Amino acid sequence: MEKQYKIAVIGLGYVGLPLARLFGTKYPVVGFDINQKRIEELNTGTDSTLEVEDDVLKAVLKHQNPFKQAENGLYCSADIDDIKDANIYIITVPTPVDKHNRPDLTPLYKSSETVGKVLSEGDIVIYESTVYPGATEEECIPVLEKVSGLKFNQNFFGGYSPERINPGDKEHTVEKILKVTSGSTPEIGKVVDTLYKSVIVAGTHLAPTIKIAEAAKVIENSQRDINIAFVNELAKIFNLLEIDTHAVLEAAGTKWNFLPFKPGLVGGHCIGVDPYYLAQKAQENGYHPEIILAGRRLNDSMGQYVASQLVKTMIKKKISINGAKILNLGITFKENCPDVRNTKAVDVIQALEDYSLYVTTFDPWAKPEEVKHEYGLEVVNEIPQEKFDAVILTVAHKEFMGINLNDYLKEGGIIYDVKGVLEECDSRL
Fold first, then answer.
1. Angle 96-97-98 (CA atoms, 0-180°, nearest 5)?
2. Residue 117: how many CB atoms within 10 A of its CB?
């Protein structure tokens, strides 16, 4: 069967491209994306997300559809005709929340419509996007049936294998992370599991049902969110008690079963979003989740809290607030990664501007045009040669570690370290 697989990966972002590249080492793969600019970029052998190195991408890249030659490799296209001969469709589109923190399944609906137009007898459609339990079979499959005219589990089949991509992590790459798999029937579950097992060196775990696999994914990040919320609350308490939070966590961490979480800003497309998917499904079924939503509220409040702490520190140092100049280091949602989706560094910047401070943001990883489009904020890729009243580190990019921040401070200026990574600072979270 392996030689007969023709795989189409729908969505070539942080999740889809590494997966398509990996499958391309063993199977004919077409990567499909509606962003023509993204396709043109990938066909030159360049990945602007930096998830796949150029030489690794070029090693599997094909400039003609490998389905026709029945040869292994990856071909990238925005033409739906190029995926019509696939028999395995893997959907890896984003699953965001709207401005009210409600799940937005629009990308899933649209991608399901696309696949439905080319779906054939016997095909398998696998979803990797994070959703609430039941979304695949209750929301996505009906779209496939309606558009294709085929009957689920008779003419075509489904699967769910949640992504576990960690953007910017070059150690825990897709093939090195154990993969949860599932299928719409026990037999299809084994097919899906075998498919992933053929390229995932870390192995797989076949879940009994699609709903169980969906639930497993959504609680992974909800658990992490709650744990970070706990240490963020500790940071607030210990700041009131004038105790160094990081020193407390270091001491507590000497116990063998103490979990090593640190306070900080919790954004991104996973931890800052997934709990809302679980909460929405719980509320639809008459249960109001208290711990999950409490953790989200606390973590969502940290941008405002960090800004207020910086301002308080400035006041204690007798620095005039109105019109003061701040250098903010970092705007991506995590270190050493260009991803700015749902970054909470933006909350800090906007809160500081509400205090009538002038904020200059330096980030060597972020794309200024993307930040401007998403948030309406300016960002520079080179550190300005001027003096500031305060420097705040919100993202721990490796480039920041070798900078003497005092060179950019006015006399009496302060350094605020959100990440707790600087040897010298006046205050930290």
1. 125
2. 13
Q: Which of 400, 396, 271 is nearest to 334 (CA)?
A: 396
For 354, phi then psi, to 5°, come to -65, -25
Please give the C-alpha separations between residue 320 and each of 324, 326, 429, in angstroms, as whole numbers. 6, 12, 22
What is the average pLDDT value for the chain, to the nearest integer? 94
Determine which helix (DSSP H) or strand (DSSP E) holds 111, and give its type and residue range. helix 106-118
Answer whether residue 387 shows pLDDT above 80.
yes
270 included as an active-site residue: yes
Inform me whether the pLDDT recorded for 1 exceeds 60: no
Neighbouring C-alpha atoms within 13 Å toward the C-beta of 198: 15
Query: DSSP letter at 406?
Result: G
64-to-29, 55, 84 alpha-carbon distances in Å: 11, 19, 15
pLDDT digits (tens, 9 = 90+) for 48-73: 999 999 999 999 999 999 998 878 99
Tokens of 83: 């995926």
This prediction has a pTM of 0.92
Q: How would you label 79-114 residue by residue, b for 16+ Cβ within 10 Å and e otherwise?
A: eeebbeebbbbbbbbbbebeeebebbbebbeebbeb
Predicted confidence at residue 3, as pLDDT, reads: 52
What tokens appear for 74 in the block? 């990856």
Residues 69-92: tens digit of each pLDDT: 878 999 999 999 999 999 999 999
β-pair type (358-362, 388-393): unpaired
Annotated catalytic residue: which of 76, 270, 337, 425? 270
Return the beta strands (E) in 168-260 as ranges.
Answer: 179-181, 204-206
Q: Decide: 107 and 113 in contact? Cβ < 8 Å.
A: no
Decide: helix, strand or coil at residue 191: helix
